[in-house]
Amino acid sequence: MRQSKMNKIHTDFKLPIQKCIDGQSVKDLSDTELLAVIVGTGIKNIDVLELSAKIIKNMGGLSAISKAGLREIAIEKGLGLKKAVKIQAAFEIGKRVITDVTDLKHISSPNAVWNLLLPEIACLQKEEFRVLVVNNKNMLLKKIIVSVGTITEAIVHPREVFRDAIKEAGSGIIVTHNHPSGNASPSKQDIDTTKRLVEAGKIVGIPLLDHIILTNASYYSMKENGYI
């Protein structure tokens, strides 16, 4: 019986799952193969690897896919909502695993903060203002998102910033916010917010240790640059 193109057996490659069953490490799979594992099946006349390659090309790479909304992914030919949910779930697992591991780290430097939060801020299109509450050994006690702003600013109030630090009996706080533009340089508002939080910290007895602006590629420490 003649096979349809949709169900044809390929002799020039193994499907990614079979490659791994046969001994290849998952970490050695290409971006296309990894996405194919999640997508699972192709469509008429297009096998799952070709489909996955088209999706990556159309959407601009895995990083762009990780930032896309559910329906933005779902409208890609051959996907739909169910497969789009699977793709988003895979990216979310990766973020949570990295976050779980790094939550236990000693917050020793602005670079350590950047490494800790990069998985969370890398896909953001809006600014988010976070508070890291630390003990007297700079071990992380709690991590909180205080506010989500517009594309240009996150609105914060000292009361919200210090609330969880007081509840957790923290010895200090580090605040951060991301710049989706990719430019880590502080605005006048960023500097003014830092000064206001320094003064508030003196009043409540919980010092602001740093205010760090984060981007996907770099960071800017207010402390290192003399604002704290």
Describe the overall structure:
The protein is of the alpha+beta class and 228 residues long. It has two domains: 14-99, DNA polymerase, domain 1 (Orthogonal Bundle), CATH 1.10.150; 104-221, Cytidine Deaminase, domain 2. 43% of the residues lie in helices and 14% in strands. The chain has a five-stranded mixed sheet with strand order 2-1-3-4-5, sandwiched between helices. A hairpin with a 5-residue loop joins strand 1 (128-134) and strand 2 (140-148). Helix 6 runs antiparallel to helix 7 (110-121). Mean pLDDT is 84; it is low at 1-12.
Fraction in helix: 40-55%
Major beta-sheet overview: 5 strands, mixed
What is the string of helix and strand elements? HHHHHHHEEHEHEE
Overall structural domain count: 2
As an assembly, this protein is single chain
* Biggest sheet strand line-up: 2-1-3-4-5
CATH class term of the largest domain:
Alpha Beta
Gross morphology: elongated
CATH fold group of the largest domain: Cytidine Deaminase, domain 2
Using the CA coordinates, give the radius of gyration: 22 Å
Fraction in beta strands: 5-15%
Tally the beta strands. 5
Number of helices: 9
User: Mind telling me which CATH architecture of the largest domain this is?
Assistant: 3-Layer(aba) Sandwich
**What would you call the structural class?**
alpha+beta
Distance between the amino and carboxyl termini: 76 Å
Kindly report the name of the CATH homologous superfamily of the largest domain. Cytidine Deaminase, domain 2
- What's the average pLDDT? 84
- Uncertain runs are 1-12
